[in-house]
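Re: the multi-chain job from yesterday

Posting the exact lines I submitted so nobody has to dig through the queue logs.
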Amino acid sequence: MTFLNHLINGISLGSVYAIIALGYTMVYGIAKMLNFAHGDVIMVGGFVSFLTVSSAGVPAIVSVLISMAVCTVLGVLIERLAYKPLRGAPSLAVLITAIGVSYFLQNAAQLLWGSDSKVFTSVVPFNSISLAGGKLVITPESIVTVSACIVIMVALTLFTAKTKMGKAMRAVSEDKGAAQLMGINVNSTISVTFAIGSALAAIAGILLCSAYPTLSPTTGSMPGIKAFTAAVFGGIGSIPGAMLGGILLGIIEIFSKAYISTELSDAIVFAVLILVLLVKPEGLLGRHVREKV
Amino acid sequence: MAMLKVEDINVYYGSIHAVRGVSFEVNEGEIVTLIGANGAGKSTSLNTVSGLLPAKSGKIEFLGRDLHGIAPHRIVGLGLTQVPEGRRVFSQMTVEENLDMGAYTRAAGEVKDSMADVYDRFPRLKERRRQLAGTLSGGEQQMLAMGRALMSHPKLLMLDEPSMGLAPILVDQIFDIIKELHASGVTVLLVEQNARMALSIADRAYVLETGKVALSGTGAELMASDKVREAYLGG
Ligand SMILES: Nc1ncnc2c1ncn2[C@@H]1O[C@H](COP(=O)(O)OP(=O)(O)OP(=O)(O)O)[C@@H](O)[C@H]1O
Ligand SMILES: [Mg+2]
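And the result, structure tokens for all chains:
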């Protein structure tokens, strides 16, 4: 039974990583850049939800929507102000800028909301479910997180397969120049990608803080890095890859914590990543990328 | 009045001066061809017209409208579409999705008819509409690239080396298609290295050499010119 409990916790944590990883992977697929500030958008999402619930007293579900809206605007602004001027610049310049944006968000949060950690109240107002005479406990956060992950996965798959904008995103990620020759506005496609990724980051932030209820300006950085790892693990640029990578990473992390060592769990997670990349450099579901000249 | 008027454009890649004061015109209803050796600046010229590259100086007008500063995706909306060199189909998307992308600037209601037209013209694409474009043969990919461009309902179609890498029989087929398109009312600007074929169907032609227009005239005039025969038609 404890095994099953750990598995459920692992899938649940992994679902959060998966939702975050989607943001990394979609942005990478389209803009060919690693948005290191993505993890900090998660933190902003958490704070917006925290403040609207604790100070303004809005209902939890409304706070989720507000948080998504704020993060969407934030993500689009970050892209417009920080990354768009660097389109076509060397990727190192873009990477350094992304790290700069990440620190900027953390420090801005510290200024606005203080550096002490806050106790986040879960947005899921249900009790845990006990099975097998209390040996198997399923938290409502797990149920909501895993369900959210599934819904998001299905929605994004349909979006990229069926809608005009979704197909345009695939076209841009394959060949920006050819996409422009079709009449696709590459800039707005990139904006939409950042908007979707950031709205997902808000959801992830709230789910994460609901399950692990502390919130501080650096809350987003470690999950951000892990989700990035998950995206690479699954094959960066691949939506199913981000899902698979996220969930596997969550399971590995929880099992390492439970059966090996809490201190070493992060080391084990990254060791697994390195191993996978040694054997399969493109990630589990990644495609070999042909470099375009 | 010229449909497309390119006036004295200069285009650079960093410090490389690839197009040096090139001017040419395409009138409505014409087939005009740009021929020239590798690196003469043909693709650079087309990409500048499409708005993918900025001209440092000079002027480009399409249907009387200055294209300066207009984004590439808006230029397509004006009726000026390019089939790029190397086809550049979206290999991870199906044939039909590629055609959908070609119709990106069109209203949803107009897409169906255009799709039917393209499938009529290229029955092979219809058979393979659920297949990934990357799995098509070179000739099929060229047809897809042309069909995709037609989905935008262009007034002027620019084709960059459509015969590149194709077997002679397919080259003939591609040129037949270009003639048919032209007959159906599409104005054509054709970039080719296959000078003989291009000159044989062109109303007028320009010869580009190292970024400059070296010669121009009607297709027949250039075909008869000693200079062209020597340099481009193998004597
Ligand atoms: N991306 C680029 N960066 C730097 N120089 C370039 C680039 N693209 C083209 N050039 C240079 O510009 C010049 C013109 O190239 P362009 O591609 O326009 O030639 P082309 O006439 O289309 O040749 P081809 O028949 O081989 O396609 C060449 O000297 C080429 O080396
Ligand atoms: Mg060329």
